[in-house]
Specification:
Blueprint lengths: L1 E7 L8 E7 L2 H18 L6 H13 L3 E7 L3 E9 L2 E3 L2 E4 L4 H8 L1 E4 L11 H4 L5 E8 L5 E9 L6 H93 L8 H32 L7 E4 H10 L2 H6 L3 E5 L6 E4 L1 H18 L5 E10 L13 E9 L6 H4 L11 H6 L6 H11 L3 E7 L3 E9 L6
Parallel strand pairs: 11-13
Antiparallel strand pairs: 1-2, 3-4, 3-9, 4-5, 4-6, 7-8, 8-9, 10-12, 13-14, 14-16, 15-16
Catalytic activity: ATP + protein L-histidine = ADP + protein N-phospho-L-histidine
Protein name: Circadian input-output histidine kinase CikA
Family: In the N-terminal section; belongs to the phytochrome family.
């Protein structure tokens, strides 16, 4: 009960009197309690539990049989959740234009005391549920777009529409937020499905590519094996007759089989030189094949630096003498031994020295200069066994190399100019082998050159003096 009083003053001077009023507010208190319960109960729910809790609380608070939360599609109305005679029902789709919800969404709010008389006799809520009265509010997004409705229905006139309006408005914004959140989650699920589908497609494509790669690798390995076998067989088949040719040529030139005249010796010398060139070419091809197959290995030992240089120079002395090219070697006396593969290092030095003689004109000069340098002044990484690098530099006064052609030098089967193939014999394999030998020793090859003045090729290695 609510009590109130008012004081009444009298004009004739008599004492004032009071009027008291007692008001029964039980219904209002009950309604406020119901609304508070509704707000607290629904607010505690979220996600999939929100809409079922909402329609149940609204139905109980307003004492109606039916509550719907709908979402407008293109030409249909999706009932997200409904309360029908005490039961939560799953979502369904009905026609938009035959439902009073369409009017609600259009107008923002809609009250219909008699659905049959108002033209909704064919509506599913009238035909299947027997609903008579209706009240609903539109669900509006933050941008003002109406996306659905929240409505109540009953088989008798709905009592206290203002109260129903107040309760539904309390939850309209929350319903809108939940619908938008649901749509966002739905879009996210669709995006995830698309991403999963793309990942699956790419995974399958990658698996197929890997299978194809495995097949290709197997075929490549087989082809490499066949190539190695072919080269091994061919090297034997080619070397056997070449050895006979070279041996007989040397024997004839040394007058082992009798005296020869000058013309015959010149012809035999040409045969011998051509045979040796062919043998060198075969050996280079085999070395490149070993490099590509990973079978090019080193056998290191302690080698005298001076001995290594002198033995390398001895191979090209005759060729240099014919061109009147002066040879000079500079090996400091304090340089003793170095741990390298003697055979491979001589092969690398002879290759560089032969190139120097080949590209140096008559009367030129070639210098093999060996020196030590602190390892941090080179491009070598720090090596624990040595603080210094040893440099074998071969400088000549030859034709030189242009800067744009230096990068081509170490590519197999490549010469910097096709005219060189005709003017200077060679396969273009030598420098590839030199580079590989240097790198296998933990070093590298550097080049400096100037056209018309000459070139300097340097093999830079860690200076290691003792075997581990």
């Amino acid at each position: 009960m609510k009590a109130s009083s008012s004081k009444i003053d009298q004009d004739n001077g008599d004492p004032p009197f009071f009027i008291g009023v007692l008001e029964d507010i039980s219904d209002r208190k009950q309604a406020e309690a119901s609304l508070q319960s509704l707000v607290e109960g629904a607010a505690a729910k979220t996600g999939a539990n929100f809409f079922p809790a909402l329609v149940e609380y609204i139905a109980k608070a307003l004492n109606v049989r039916f509550v719907f939360v709908t979402r407008a599609l293109k030409d249909q109305l999706k009932i997200e959740v409904s309360w029908i005679d005490g039961t939560i029902n799953p979502s369904s789709v009905i026609g938009l234009h035959t439902s009073p919800c369409a009017v609600t969404i259009h107008k923002g709010s809609f009250e219909c005391p008699n659905l049959t008389e108002s033209g909704f006799a064919d509506s599913v809520v009238v035909k299947k549920l027997g609903a008579v009265s209706y009240f609903g509010l539109a669900i509006t997004k933050a941008d003002g777009q109406k996306i659905g409705s929240i409505c109540i229905l009953d088989d008798k006139p709905i009592r206290d529409i203002p109260r129903a309006n107040a309760i539904l408005r309390v939850f309209a914004a929350r319903v809108s937020a939940e619908v938008e959140r649901f749509e966002a989650l739905e879009s996210l699920r669709e995006l995830n499905q698309q991403l999963e589908s793309r990942v699956e497609e790419r995974t399958q494509a990658l698996q197929y590519a890997n299978q194809q790669l495995s097949v290709t690798n197997a075929e490549l390995a087989r082809a490499t094996k066949l190539k190695d076998e072919f080269l091994a067989n061919m090297s034997h088949e080619l070397r056997t007759p070449l050895n006979a040719i070279l041996g007989m040529s040397e024997g004839l030139l040394s007058d082992t089989f009798g005296d020869l005249n000058a013309r015959q010796k010149k012809a035999l010398a040409l045969i011998e030189n051509s045979g040796r060139h062919l043998l060198e070419l075969i050996n280079d091809i085999l070395d490149v094949a070993r490099i590509e197959s990973g079978k090019f290995s080193l056998s290191v030992s302690s080698v005298g630096v001076s001995q290594l240089c002198q033995s390398s120079l001895s191979f090209i002395k005759q060729m240099a003498s014919k061109k009147q090219v002066r040879l000079e070697v500079i090996v400091p006396s304090h340089l003793g031994v170095i741990v390298v593969d003697d055979l491979r290092m001589r092969q690398a030095l002879i290759n560089l020295l032969s190139n120097a003689v080949k590209f140096t004109p008559t009367g030129g000069k070639i210098c093999l200069d060996v020196k030590l340098m602190p390892i941090d002044e080179t491009n070598l990484s720090a090596v624990s066994d040595s603080s210094h690098a040893i440099i074998f530099a071969i400088a000549d006064t030859g034709i030189g190399i242009s800067p744009e052609n230096i990068d081509k030098l170490f590519q197999a089967f490549v010469q910097i100019d096709s005219s060189f193939t005709r003017q200077y014999a060679g396969s273009g394999l030598g420098l590839t082998i030199v580079k590989q030998i240097a790198e296998m020793h933990g070093g590298y090859v550097s080049v400096t050159s100037k056209v018309g003045e000459g070139s300097c090729f340097a093999i830079v290695l860690p200076y290691i003096q003792a075997l581990k």
